[in-house]
Task: inverse folding
């Protein structure tokens, strides 16, 4: 029987299948326990990769639930590339459709936040514009201003307080009940080599999304005000300057 | 095509949590090794650490995702990423495994076994030639830990590796723990394997810890776990290899249950003591 990697692979992902024909050992002609080493390596290795990327998700649902959920995910969505840093991009959407996780409605958004954190961690290095680059701009130029942002920047919007939930499930933080349950928009970026997660002020997610899409400051502010009257342009602008998110100032044309 | 080489000293598989410790007190470390795939992001701390380490130490880039033993053609996109990484850091060594890890576009994240036949030999040799042509350098091929055999295999692993070297001009990475694990798992002699290994083509040695369990009939089954100190029989085989060949670049791999830096450093120091003793004996 000639070895066949397709049959071997199918048997790795399906514990009900027999040891593929052609596989043998010096002790037993169909070495179930030996083949199980490969099955275990593959599934446990991929589940471990997800646990590394999504530690707050695991903490929220507990290790046992997480590993069971991740095991289902791994079989349905094996990685498409050898870069484990990229593995799990589809996990948030998978969680949305994973019935046993339905009673934790914010879980998928926490996963989206954690996925964005890994992307930010590995994003290209850029030099932020110093605050003085903005203060020296003539006020008349501000309206038509376009900005280019460092590639680590991502926005995760949620109807749940995901920044609060993520922060109290990160590292050694202690989860406490959330009194004021309201949606939060997360801004993920990198300060130097450290990934930062900030809570965006009202309208901030729309404003920043427009800027990221290459719209002018004036257009972005108008869209944000349309969404919420609570949008404060000065506060949002100061926030993005202080966070060092912009790397280049452009003029009237998209940058 | 041989290019730069690792120093015949001891090295460690780099873990980011050891970065400060290594720079503050490297002990006998002469080189560091990283898994290529962990440094294929665009930027951030991984690249900053790698650049800082390579300023001070020789560098070995060790791939775990190229799937050289696959039935399918090599992943050209991944090969291009490897080339960019090697061009950027100019490591003293690049190595990969005699194994496959991808099928049908899915990456399986494990080093899976290859039958040893004339057909698989031709395919692996073609893949290695392509890697060497693309990277513009000689690579080292590592002997695997295996848990099963293939009924169709007709070539001994050592002969398979020697023929690959003959056809492609690649070098070998001798993983002494893998020698012990596979020999135990298949009821063969690790000493005989080592004695017939074409050691003149070895550019690097790996040492690591393994776990022990039993197979379907209660026979010993060792798992290449990289989660513990190097076992005594593996130290013994290492000593024999160095006695036969003289000092070679020797890496401690400890990838799971990662110890503190001083523990890993003392494991490297134990390997260094063997290298130093045999270097002195040869000089005498």
Result:
């Amino acid at each position: 029987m000639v070895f066949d990697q397709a049959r071997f692979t199918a048997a790795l992902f399906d514990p009900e299948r027999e040891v593929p024909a052609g596989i043998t050992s010096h002790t037993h002609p169909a070495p179930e326990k030996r083949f199980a080493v490969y099955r275990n390596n593959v599934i446990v290795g991929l589940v471990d990769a997800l646990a590394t990327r999504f530690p707050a998700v695991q903490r929220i649902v507990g290790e046992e639930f997480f590993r069971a959920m991740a095991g289902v995910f791994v079989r349905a969505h094996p990685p498409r590339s050898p870069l484990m840093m990229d593995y799990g991009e589809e996990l948030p959407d998978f969680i949305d459709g994973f019935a046993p996780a339905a009673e934790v409605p914010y879980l998928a958004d926490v996963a989206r936040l954690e996925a964005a954190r890994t992307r930010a961690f590995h994003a290209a290095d850029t030099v932020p514009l110093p605050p003085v680059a903005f203060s020296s701009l003539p006020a008349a130029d501000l309206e038509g201003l376009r900005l280019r942002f460092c590639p680590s920047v991502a926005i995760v919007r949620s109807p749940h307080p995901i920044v609060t939930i993520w922060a109290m499930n990160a590292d050694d933080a202690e989860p406490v009940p959330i009194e004021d349950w309201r949606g939060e928009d997360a801004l993920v970026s990198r300060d130097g080599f450290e990934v930062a997660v900030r809570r965006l002020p009202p309208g901030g997610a729309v404003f920043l999304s427009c800027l990221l899409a290459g719209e002018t400051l004036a257009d972005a502010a108008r869209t944000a005000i349309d969404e919420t009257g609570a949008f404060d342009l000065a506060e949002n602008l100061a926030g993005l300057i202080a966070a060092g998110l912009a790397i280049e100032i452009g003029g009237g044309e998209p940058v | 095509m041989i290019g730069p080489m690792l120093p015949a000293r001891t090295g460690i598989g780099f873990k980011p949590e050891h970065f400060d410790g290594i720079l503050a007190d490297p002990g006998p470390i002469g080189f560091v090794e990283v898994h290529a795939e962990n440094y294929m992001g665009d930027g951030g701390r991984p690249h900053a650490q790698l650049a800082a380490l390579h300023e001070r130490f020789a560098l070995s880039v060790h791939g775990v995702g190229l799937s050289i033993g696959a039935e399918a053609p090599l992943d050209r996109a991944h090969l291009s990423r490897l080339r960019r990484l090697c061009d950027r850091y100019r490591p003293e060594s690049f190595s990969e495994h005699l194994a496959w890890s991808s099928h049908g576009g899915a990456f399986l994240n494990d080093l899976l076994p290859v039958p040893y036949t004339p057909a698989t030999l031709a395919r692996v040799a073609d893949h290695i030639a392509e890697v060497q042509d693309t990277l513009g350098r000689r690579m080292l091929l590592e002997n695997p830990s295996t848990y099963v055999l293939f009924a169709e295999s007709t070539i001994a692993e050592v002969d398979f590796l020697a023929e690959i070297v003959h056809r492609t001009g690649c070098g070998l990475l001798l993983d002494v723990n893998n020698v012990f694990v596979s020999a135990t798992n298949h009821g063969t002699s690790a000493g005989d394997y080592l004695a017939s290994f074409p050691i003149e083509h070895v550019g690097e040695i790996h040492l690591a810890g393994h776990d022990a369990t039993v197979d379907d009939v209660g026979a010993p089954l060792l798992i290449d776990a990289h989660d513990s100190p190097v076992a005594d029989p593996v130290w013994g085989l290492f000593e024999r290899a160095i006695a036969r060949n003289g000092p070679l670049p020797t890496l401690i791999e400890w990838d799971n249950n990662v110890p503190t830096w001083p523990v890993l450093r003392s494991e490297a120091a134990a390997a260094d003591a063997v290298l130093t003793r045999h270097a002195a004996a040869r000089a005498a």
